[in-house]
């Protein structure tokens, strides 16, 4: 499937900030089933975009901007994908799968998540893939997609207690649950071409990869309740949202900030 | 079992290191020590060396009790110890380079991978990244205890941001003022040059891109940190700027310090702030005491952090028990300093042994420090033993256990007069691109309570001046 992406993030400041520093993880990489035909990342200011690779193998762009009343980041390009039955192969793996059992503040399983994971996967015990499918259905059905009560700092436990959240929260809950039953799991940020043909989206997408011995990494999309397909364009991967966030930044000065995202994902 | 006393042999004779002091004590007027102790307390109050005790309702500032009777080692004894310390720090650096690099030690099956991967002190962000001069631990505070004339055990490898060196220096300064005659009569190795050696070490580790006169700063979390006094003390003695995160900024992967003359490039940061607060763009996003972009500058090789990020994985108590094997693996040598035999409660057999022998053992939290959350079996009440039994059963992975060591004792001036009290020692090991430096001395901590083995200041411990001298 051909997926064409245009992702613009615009900050507007009520006063000119002294300094803005950001790390972008907005550049997808090739792997089996995903080929980047074209891609560019731009910032609408005279900054030095320094490209690097983080510990997980994600491509990062770091920059510092001084002054100015607005700041726009653009990521744009085209990705060719093939359905691989959810399997993710050919990625550059920097760590053994066991690393992805590591707990982070955002993905710490509390007793509610631990017992949820244990109970729901009990019958499928011994069959990891099956357990993960049960978990996928359980998180998708058990949580309501709702952007109002959560933000980027919401933990898996908090979202699960409300049974609400966005793709980020559902992914964190899935990750926490999977790790609590001993299955390595990790957070993926990227783009999703919607099946209903809607092109304009409010934000990028997030899903999960879990490790199945014998198969390798397999993608699960708890927000949509499906395995990862050729409609998913994978950009960055880490232990949680913080490690894979499309944009992480800090700012000195600048007063009030207004953030607008313009995202088009289409054929 | 009677502990080894560093002054007096079992037959009552005096060991060589203490001969001059014993003679002085014998002839000193009875009230002299009392007067000197009062003077010492006044001096420390005036200097303002305080520390905060955690776990109390209000972390109040206190003065660590100072004992005016020095702890003494001969130059020969010291030399043996330093060889062991140097070897240990070499192994720590080799281990960290490997863990964040090729991970040969995991492939060789010497350390279980989950102890690394699931360790909160392991920083995945450092994997595959090189650090200037391949050095991770530039400043170590290796805690050792002595059990007989020749044997030292390492208790802890403090490889993150070890503190206490200001006490070593202040204790000496106060002792010289109180007992000038003793320093006149004895050749005590100086410790005042510690900061010169530290500065030489920090300068030597500057990135290759730095100028020949690199800018070194000391970064503190701020005045509310319990070790703030030491941070300002050291910056002052080093003659470098004491900075907080907000005094630094990063532009295009270069770190600058704001000064009245405009931005000045920074090459080496002696940071006394924990990893997770260093850079809100990589670690805790809510950290307001870090520097955004610092890790990018670090990875780009434009600044050296001392110690490196992620060194905590080497001084973790769970890793500690593997140190003899780690040392053999990288250096191909036998460890000079001993490791305390350690039961890893994560292993079922070890756990059942520990539960069966709880009253004889010392139990520690794997990720704890400062003597908090520790059980000293022989001194514990029945209730404390039961509490720990439950803790161990609930979270065996969180604990290790060790036999109760007969820590050596040193003469100490307490309420009842001069009496033996248990001590440990934290020597400071500096590791630069141009070699290892160890100041003859260190911080001797003393358990002031009769029979107590817990020397931590937060648990009622005091300090002593530590003398290394020719006899």
TrEMBL record, chain A:
It comes from the Bacteria. It holds the Pfam family Bact_transglu_N. Residues 159-224 form the Transglutaminase-like domain. SUPFAM superfamilies: Cysteine proteinases. This is Transglutaminase.
UniProtKB/TrEMBL annotation, chain B:
InterPro entries: ATP-dep_Glu-Cys_Ligase-2 (IPR051680), CP_ATPgrasp_2 (IPR025841), UCP005522 (IPR016450). This is Circularly permuted ATP-grasp type 2 domain-containing protein. It comes from Agaricicola taiwanensis. Residues 70-447 form the Circularly permuted ATP-grasp type domain. Pfam families: CP_ATPgrasp_2 (PF14403).
